[in-house]
Amino acid sequence: MSWIPFKIGQPKKQIVPKTVERDFEREYGKLQQLEEQTKKLQKDMKKSTDADLAMSKAAVKISSDLLSNPLCEQDAAFLGVVTAFDTAMRRMDSFNQEKVNQIQKTVIEPLKNGCGAVWAAVSRRFGSVFPSLNMAVKRREQTLQEYRRLQAKVEKYEEKERSGPGLAKLHQAREELRPVRADFEAKNQQLLQEMPKFYSSRSDYFTPSFEALLRAQVVFYSEMRSIFGDLTAQIGRAALSDELRERENEGRLGELRALSIVGDD
Questions:
Q1: CA distance 150 to 245
Q2: Is 106 in the same domain as 224?
Q3: Is 98 helix (H, G, I), strand (E, B) or coil?
Q4: Helix residue spans in 15-163 (DSSP H)
Q5: Which of 117, 126, 170, 196 could cross-link with 157 by S-S, CB 3.0 to 4.6 Å?
Q6: CA 155 remoteness from chain centre
Q7: For residue 189, what are the domain limits?
Q8: pTM
């Protein structure tokens, strides 16, 4: 006789209707997908803000290095341009830090995973509800396994001869089954009612965060327009087209090549 371990202790009676089990799997599957998407979004937002900070810090480093260039000591006009550039980069870095702090507070922190309270309530940190949700599902599964075990036990005694000792064991098995069945049905019903509510609440939670993200970006780029507008005015030179800039650079490079120290051997 072949041994099928997962059949041991399984009741013959279908204790959870297939339609109910399908509904549960569908709703829980949607929340599992939402959890993965939330984790990915939080991670991507963190990468984005880290890259933003690295960009503005690098710009400040470049302007600082230019200020220490000996050419600034020799050319007052160049010093003025570099000083204006350095001021602009430091202003940009300051506003960028403010933007990142705002995004951290209004988007990244609310998405973080952490230790949550009751999963059914949308907590301050959206990701914190998922561990509690998964634990509730795990407890439901554990109760279901116990329910199946006790139901199989009841069925076993029901199939035996209804003698005095047999009836006593059947009665005891039914008494053991009753609270476990009630516990499972309560857990199952609560999850089936609250999982769709939680899933449908996601837009209510995410919308304010991403409105704050957009506002932070709008404020930042408005400030950048002002900063670089001021920088353009301080430079006081009309922008060259790519063609004119290339022609000008080639002319100066030609002058350098004409020097004897860089001439061909």
A1: 85
A2: yes
A3: helix
A4: 18-67, 71-74, 76-103, 109-111, 129-159
A5: 170
A6: 48
A7: 114-200
A8: 0.68
Cα separation, 195 vs 26, whole angstroms: 10
pLDDT digits (tens, 9 = 90+) for 47-98: 999 999 999 999 999 999 999 988 888 888 889 999 999 999 999 999 999 9
Q: How far apart are CA 75 and CA 37, in angstroms?
A: 55
Q: Which DSSP helix (H) or strand (E) runs through 216?
A: helix 202-235
Number of neighbours of residue 223 by Cβ within 10 angstroms: 17
Q: How many residues does the chain have?
A: 265
Contact (CB, 8 A) for 126 and 38? yes
How far is it between the farthest Cα atoms of the chain?
Answer: 119
Cα of 43 vs its chain's centroid, Å? 5
Rg (CA), the chain: 35
In a domain, 52, yes or no: yes
- Structure tokens, 20: 């109910």
Cα(first)–Cα(last) distance of the chain, in Å?
Answer: 95
Rounded CA separation 154/157 (Å):
5
Residues 108 and 118 in one domain: no
